[in-house]
Amino acid sequence: MSLTYLDAIREAQHDALARDPRVFIYGQDIGKFGGAFKATKRLAEEFPGRVLDAPISEDAMVGVAIGAAIEGARPIVEMQFADFSSVGFNQIVNQAATHFWRTNVPCPIVIRLPSGGTAGSGPFHSQSMESIYAHYPGLIILTPATVEDAYHMLLAAVGCTDPVIFCEHKFLYYHLKADALPDETLPLGKARIARPGRHATVVAYSAMVHESIRAAEELAKDGYQIEVVDLRSVKPIDTDTILASVARTGRLLCVGESFPWGGVTAEVIARVTTEGFHLLDAPPQRLNSKDTPIPYHPNLWKAHRPTSPAIVNELRRLLKY
């Protein structure tokens, strides 16, 4: 039986609860209702008193989790949408991120952010917040792009002593499936070569990995071999794997669904130009969503975010340089 990306997240939470009595889950409507996307479906019945409904206050949710974590618990906080985490921003960046550095007491919380766009979701339910949180020291930012990583990286996040922002992409919840979950995976902070190549490197993460692979498959019809690097983790970021790929290909395109200004793609290009300028045969490029609020209409949304045809066009320009 195949597992979806959402199944993997639910299974990881189940296993975390089963293995460690310190783990509990806290969020809005996650108990009997099972959460906005059913990521905690049936967990409240199996683990009574450990899958807890929260008030409609993201600020309070994160505050409770921080208090529990510094007293020895391992809380998982579910935000209904990544966008809503901004209500708890103070608690996340001023309390959780800094706590260990102020007190020498760890703050091991996981905050799950259903991220990215889906057709018709509009500006309040489609944002990608990873670049914002990556700006702050003390936070780990994970962006799994596969079913396997959704499972293993969430379990690893629960075991981490640092606060973790777990950016799971809503578009992948039902669109992505796997036949089984492997026993082992790459460690946190290690990127993955999702597709090998030699003519150009695409660095992507989350749902954009799959758009990039489709673009690479299209260009393969013309004889181009495009290497796709799946970051997996935005912070820490695996600069060594990125540089090694650029050394093989000489060309770099960074793709992200978040807004372009000050994003992950800009950070990747900054690192490559600073540490690997001599490896480049062409100016590095980036492709992000448009620098506007995210539109409701499905056709406008498709034009707003990077898609495989847009990635193909950018790569063709890069390859011709």
UniProtKB/TrEMBL annotation:
Q: Which UniProt keywords apply?
A: Oxidoreductase, Pyruvate, Thiamine pyrophosphate
> Per the database record, which ranges form the Transketolase-like pyrimidine-binding domain?
3-175
Give the required cofactors.
thiamine diphosphate
Which residue positions does the secretion signal occupy?
none
Write one Gene Ontology MF term. oxidoreductase activity
- Judging by the UniProt lineage, the source's domain of life is Bacteria
* SUPFAM superfamilies given in the database record: Thiamin diphosphate-binding fold (THDP-binding), TK C-terminal domain-like
Matching entries from InterPro entries are given as:
THDP-binding (IPR029061), Transketo_C/PFOR_II (IPR009014), Transketolase-like_Pyr-bd (IPR005475), Transketolase_C (IPR033248)
In terms of PANTHER family, this protein maps to: PYRUVATE DEHYDROGENASE E1 COMPONENT BETA SUBUNIT (PTHR43257), PYRUVATE DEHYDROGENASE E1 COMPONENT SUBUNIT BETA (PTHR43257:SF2)
The name this protein goes by in its record: Pyruvate dehydrogenase E1 component beta subunit/2-oxoisovalerate dehydrogenase E1 component beta subunit
The organism of origin for this protein: Roseimicrobium gellanilyticum
